[in-house]
Amino acid sequence: MESVKINARQLFVLIVLFEHGSAIVIPLGVDAKQDVWIAILLGLVFGLLLFFVYRRLFEYYPDQPLTAYLPQIVGAPLGKLLAVVYITYFLYIAARVLRDFGELLLTFAYPETPLFVLNAIMALAVMYGVYKGIEVLARTGELFLTVLYLLALAGFVLVFVSGLVDVTQLQPVLEEGWGRVWKTVWTETLYVPFGEMIVFTMLFPYMNNPVKVKRVGLGGMVLSGINLAIIMAINIAVLGPDAVSRSSFPLLDTIRRVQVAHFLERLDVLFMIALIIGGFFKISVFFYAGVVGAAHLFGVSSHQRLVYPLGLLVLLLSVAIANNYIEHIHEGLKIVTFYLHVPLQVIIPVSLLVIATIRRRFSQPTK
Amino acid sequence: MLFQWGMRRQKERMNDGVQQEGADHSGEAADVLEEPLSPELAVNIDIIRRATGESSDIVIRRFSLGQETQMKAAIVFVDGLVDEKNVYEFLLLPLLTASFPLPLEEKERIQWIEKKLAAVGGIEQVSDWKRLFFNLFSGATILLLDGAALAISASTKGGQYRSIEEPQTQIAIRGPREGFTESLRTNTALIRRRIKNPNLWLETMQIGTVTQTDVAIMYVKGIANDDIVTEVKKRLARIDIDGVLESGYIEQLIEDQTFTTFPTVYHTERPDVVAANLLEGRVAILVEGTPFVLVAPALFIQFFQVGEDYYARFDIATALRFLRVLIFFISLVAPAIYIAATTFHQEMIPTQLVIAIAAQRESVPFPAFVEALAMEVTFEVLREAGVRLPRAVGQAVSIVGALVIGQAAVEAGFVSSAMVIVVSVTAIASFATPSFAIAISARLIRFGLMFLAAILGFYGIMMGLLIMVIHLCSLRSFGVPYMSPLAPLIPSNTGDTLFRVPTWMFRERPRLINQKNIVRQSGGQKPQPPAPSRQEKGDES
């Protein structure tokens, strides 16, 4: 672990940027059609429950990351194994987000550039940021959150000024009842991006004021959830539910519709900036968690020593995990969710909390 | 990163070497001077002669002291460093005319002479050669007496200095016209005149084993953060170098990180700027022989601030701040954006313009990157020539320059006229950046961004900027985060960053720089029109 501390505002910024991350650009929960915003808000509500689980665990072990207290809860052999699983999971998700990011650039701007080159530049930036440490990442985040918000504001104004928003597209609400919405919540929006807060169990120990973790996490998640819901609602209001569910990048399609005074048009750059900022922080947080966890678990003195080897690993993994984008998306929706997200974000943390609570109950009277 | 790692390895290796060589070179300045002063005048004079290689500017005047009893004595000074009128009028004359009572002990003699010399300041008894020579070359006059193993050094500093002129590099439309000079004393006085407070502390030291350059640090006790003051002193004390000829030497030896293009120590020629920084709790480092005063710790935003921001009203100042940040941005990315837009993202340019550019570029044989690179390099060459050449030739350069970056180049088909405009805008922007130190780092980064733009278009530019911002956020100046108060965000200090709030709202000093004495002025100073008088009220009704 680094010996630096970040303050509440910086943690908040990291959470907000992380939650927006890739979620603003991918078609998040579009199976719910025009009710996607409800699905996102419901995902947020249950995501908050998961967050309370993670925070309670942090409360039990206030100065340790997840990978350090795993062995303490379930015993050394199993705990260390789980720690390795979590580290792998973090690095794998970092690679997945990197792949998402590269594919996106490939599709909409650089059809002839090799995926590896696009990913490599991003991986370099991530490695540089993680090498510099969490404090630098947090400070960079503070600057870029402002940029992101200004962009969002500009985007909103432009979309509304162009007269693209058609609220009737959001109707009828709950056309097919709650079934479709619940299905989306349980298969998508709960895990990405809200359940991914599990990665912050690696970052909470850096807080200079642990008491505020609850408020900061809650605030960050609620703000992000509402923002995401608004963005997806606008996407649907502009494009219509069918176009959104067929689109690979709904936000891009929305922004491309903007046309103001025959001058402000083709604003792909706005989208690209949002994509780069969000992607960078999402990958960085996952990668940082993986690197710090590995350094801690294997007793490496400084996490900086692991940045290059693991960075290279993530880069190569991002290219190798799927043959093409369709396969990549298929893996993401059908395999990763059920075999990785559900056990690692829900089942294991909840059982950890149960075991830890029981242990506390039984150990306290003996003291 | 790799580079840094490599450097660290090398540093470790170098450290091993340095320890063996050790303080070998510090003896360069003073090899013959270990023995104490001799009681015999002739011997002492001989030693001075030999030690200075009989340099012709060392003036040695022998004379006899007193009237009843004659006592041999001599004064030694360096021609040009002293005020000769002072030496003769207040030092030599009293001694020649004084009657010298007898008999007196050696000690009493010295005291008696010291009394006689009351008209000259800075009297000091010197018994070792090192101190004697240091005083001599600092402009003191040395009085040697026969029969005394002691010398009296009297401060008679003088000689020619450049007078106080308007600063050359930081010109203000409104604001004081005084600039620092090469004289350390003048410079400290210029600051003292602005802060008349006993808490303005000044500490002097000599740095440079050969040059023995006077270096002074100034800070306001009670406002400056003690940790930072100690840190500055520690870093200055660590310096072991043969000579300091400009404050740049010091700057490069005390900065937090060498491998960055961004300046982490601020320098200025303006006393009002230094005074303002001292009031914010910073530390000023003055070096004899240069008008550039260092100010530490420096923040990124500081390089966009100008003294005039505070003399002009806040709305104007804020608008100008935004303009300057925009200017910095243009000077960073303008050619890169041109390259990216013409090579990768034609769809982003309005159709008519893209047709016009394409028509111009039709005759240009190079890709946009080569075109831009050639023009930028040409411009940099011109600028370098313009800076270094004597004034008389400078005009010729500007005429020829206008041909090279201009219509002739376009007509010859080397470049497109759009490129000429881009290069010119970049050039003007880089001149308009208020601080040369930051403009020059933008110049360097610009080429990197052009290269990235040529490979990956806007994505390349943005990733370049992203890495630059990470780098900026990782910098520290004397422990203070370089990007503060923006990152880490300190809301109560952001009033003096992009925005410059009205003066009555400047309630606090920068928090990270000084942690205890934060409040700078009382609240409720918002100017208001006076309450309407009774008469006016009467008129209204």
Automatic annotation (TrEMBL), chain A:
Return any one Pfam family short name.
Spore_permease
- Give the chief site where it resides: membrane
Q: Which UniProt keywords apply?
A: Germination, Membrane, Transmembrane, Transmembrane helix, Transport
Give the subcellular location: Membrane
What does the record say about its membrane topology?
Multi-pass membrane protein
The membrane-spanning stretches of this chain are 12-30, 36-54, 66-93, 113-131, 143-165, 185-204, 216-239, 269-294, 306-326, 338-358
Query: InterPro entries of this UniProt entry?
Result: Spore_GerAB (IPR004761)
In terms of domain of life, where is this protein from? Bacteria
**PANTHER family noted in UniProt:** SPORE GERMINATION PROTEIN A2
The family this protein is said to belong to = Belongs to the amino acid-polyamine-organocation (APC) superfamily. Spore germination protein (SGP) (TC 2.A.3.9) family.
Instruction: Spell out the protein name for this chain.
Output: Spore germination protein YndE
From TrEMBL, chain B:
Give the top-rank taxon of the lineage listed in the UniProt record for this protein. Bacteria
Give the residue spans that cross the bilayer. 283-302, 322-341, 416-440, 447-472
Cite the residue spans of the region called Disordered.
1-28, 517-541
Family per similarity comment:
Belongs to the GerABKA family.
UniProt keywords (A-Z) are: Membrane, Transmembrane, Transmembrane helix
Q: Which InterPro entries match?
A: Spore_Ger (IPR004995), UPF0353/GerABKA_families (IPR050768)
Name under which the protein is recorded: Spore germination protein B1
What residue ranges carry the coiled-coil annotation?
none
Which Pfam families does the entry mention? GerA (PF03323)
What residue range is the signal peptide?
none
